[in-house]
AlpA family transcriptional regulator (Sulfitobacter faviae), 97 residues
Amino acid sequence: MREFRTLNFVETIACYQWHHSFNKEITMTDKILRCRDVQEVTGLSRSTIYRMMDRDDFPKATKLGVRAIGWRESVVQGWIGNRSNEAGNNSAPIVQG
């Protein structure tokens, strides 16, 4: 049979720091964006967001309740960053003359 003991304060802090050093995403706060927030951030209309979600061109929303959905801010910002990178890679070179 395995015995457990209560950790002292120093041991507790050490365990906490060790655990969170591997789980950085747990320590970050990630805001939930509602549809209007996503529209404002992306500049897309509601219907465009849903159409792009259906085509897997936009991150899927997370169900928050019976009639509520939202997107993690980090996911939307990552999508915007990827779109910016793709646009930068596909754009024609600027010719100065």
Summary: The helical segments are 9-22, 24-27, 35-42, 46-54, 73-90. The first helix runs from residue 9 to 22. Residues 28-83 form one domain.
